[in-house]
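Morning run. Coffee first, then this:
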Amino acid sequence: MPTLETRISTGRPERYLRQFCSHATAMGSGGSARMRMHGTGQAAHDEVRVRVEATGTAATVHLEPWGHCTLRAETGALLVRIDAAETTALQRLRDTITRDLERFGRGELTVRWLSVTDPDA
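And here it is:
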């Protein structure tokens, strides 16, 4: 399972975690539904289903069948991990998540992904 991780320095990690989860929920049209493409009412052509599980400082966003994104707010940083079903799905998730987080940060957030060679590490 291909995996990427990033540690994003920010003074407001909980805010960005909540915003990302809220956005993912809206894109999924309310929890467990087909993902909508940005700015349209059309379903994504890959029929991705979105489900969000979140607490105050941690969340998992399931984007089935592509994979899932795990977020954790720590003091001074937002930790994000993507576990994907395969390489093409990883690229789609990476591009979508990067675009959303950088847009939410309005220039404050820099996302630099690192490949995880041993996902169990």
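The chain has a mean pLDDT of 86. Good start to the day.
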